[in-house]
Amino acid sequence: MKFEVALAIWVVVAVLGVTIDGGECKIVQFIFGDSLSDVGNNMYLSRSLAQASLPWYGIDFGNGLPNGRFTNGRTVADIIGDNTGLPRPPAFLSPSLTEDLILENGVNYASGGGGILNETGGYFIQRLSLNKQIELFQGTQQMIISKIGKEKSEEFFKESQYVVALGSNDFINNYLMPVYSDSWKYNDQSFIDYLMETLEGQLRKLHGFGARKLMVFGLGPMGCIPLQRVLSTTGKCQEKTNKLAIAFNRAASKLLDNLSTKLVNASFKFGEAYDVVNDVISNPNKYGFDNADSPCCSFGQIRPALTCLPASTLCEDRSKYVFWDEYHPSDSANELIANELIKKFGFTRVNGTNAPPASAPSPVTAPSPVIAPSPEG
User: Fold this and answer.
1) Active site residue 325
2) What is the pLDDT of residue 290?
3) Per DSSP, which regions of the chain are E strands?
4) Which residue among 107, 159, 191, 280 is least packed, with the fewest CB closer than 10 Å?
């Protein structure tokens, strides 16, 4: 069945391992998130302004053409999956998605610009909020029920492990921007309370859909992304933004502990990632990077350019830059972060073999300025 969905409205791994039709089902991923995990959903949202559909996105992935990932290569979720034996799930909005493909590879619902709140990222016009992603997941369940039956589907989803990875857009593309009413309706604490109240309802809904093992990943040092630095008066990290990330992580950790004790058979955990990412940004040379404060892909001296464009200039060596564009890490940074998270959380290999479909080579030097055709977005 093909999915052709036009969406004007508006967590990173669901690990599944159950027996279907007498055979052992391969462990797969269901990914819910934002642009850090998007593998192409926004390319199928034709009116979305949050796009990674132009060169030079994807230059170090597969054939080097844009594929919907907001980086030059792989996402952190790609790399964690590759290193633990998990297949890479296709975008939910991909026209080639079928029930069989869902059972074989899972689904990725992540959407650039999406957030915990429906209003987040509104100026992108189209994006999938967490509420919408959960709604699409509910639709996926109905498709699987039609395919393998209610009883086996319930077992399939109750044996799943879920990871939710959103929240940064709720600050960067909502609360910290005066064009959004949330920026003046709330103060720092009341906004975080609002986020936690909303997130709690969403996690309870996932529990109602059968989620029993769930991890929510926390936020990194948002104040240190190139966009936040260039918007500051000093070019340094914006500490207010970083403090918001820390406060969010503290509140989310408490929420997960609370839900884990209240919900039936729930094992809800919080994945603290702030310290790992912060160390890479604070000590880039320690990890082999030369630059941790500006994007590899930039539009000369015009900053912030917000997105990487065909006319942009690339840094000389992409493997030496922590950030690919104003918002997102490079493939090399994602690889380092993913490996550190695997060690920190003790992720183990879940499948006997592993054959990632399009692993990115190590980024090297800037290409000659040849513009590749862009896919429809």
Assistant:
1) yes
2) 97
3) 19-20, 23-24, 29-33, 106-108, 161-165, 213-217, 267-271, 291-295, 297-298, 313-314, 321-323
4) 159
Element (H, E) at 125: none
**Residue 48, H or E segment:** none
3-state helix, strand, coil in the chain (%, to 5): 40, 10, 50
Q: What is the pLDDT of residue 350?
A: 76
The catalytic residue among 328, 330, 331, 332 is 328
Cβ atoms of residues 274 and 219 within 8 Å: yes
Structure token pair of residue 359 = 């692993």
User: Before 357, cis peptide (omega within 30)?
Assistant: no
Given a cut of 50, the residues of the chain with pLDDT beneath it are 1-23, 354-355, 358, 361-364, 368-377
**Three-state SS across 89-112?**
CCECCCCCCCHHHHHHHEEECCCC
Q: How far is CA 165 from CA 14, 272, 335, 353, 361, in A?
A: 12, 11, 17, 26, 26
Query: What pLDDT is attached to residue 349?
Result: 84
Annotated catalytic, 207? no
> pLDDT at position 25, please?
56
Give the span between the Cα atoms of 329 and 276, in whole angstroms. 13
Say how far apart CA 203 and CA 292 lie, in whole Å.
Answer: 34
Structure tokens given for 97: 């998605």
Whole-number Å distance between alpha carbons of 244 and 175: 10
Are the CB atoms for 160 and 35 separated by under 8 Å?
A: no
Longest dimension (CA), the chain: 63
Q: Are strands 313-314 and 106-108 parallel, antiparallel or unpaired?
A: unpaired
Structure-token pair, residue 377:
């977005």
Q: Which is it for strands 313-314 and 297-298: parallel, antiparallel or unpaired?
A: antiparallel
Q: Quick check: pTM over 0.85?
A: yes
Q: How far apart are CA 264 and CA 266, in angstroms?
A: 5
Strands 267-271 and 19-20: unpaired
CB 48 within 8 A of CB 126: yes
In this structure, what token pair is assigned to residue 71?
Answer: 């980086």
Q: Reply yes or no on whether 328 is catalytic.
A: yes
Question: Among 34, 35, 60, 160, which one carries the catalytic annotation?
Answer: 35
| Catalytic, out of 82, 182, 325, 331 | 325
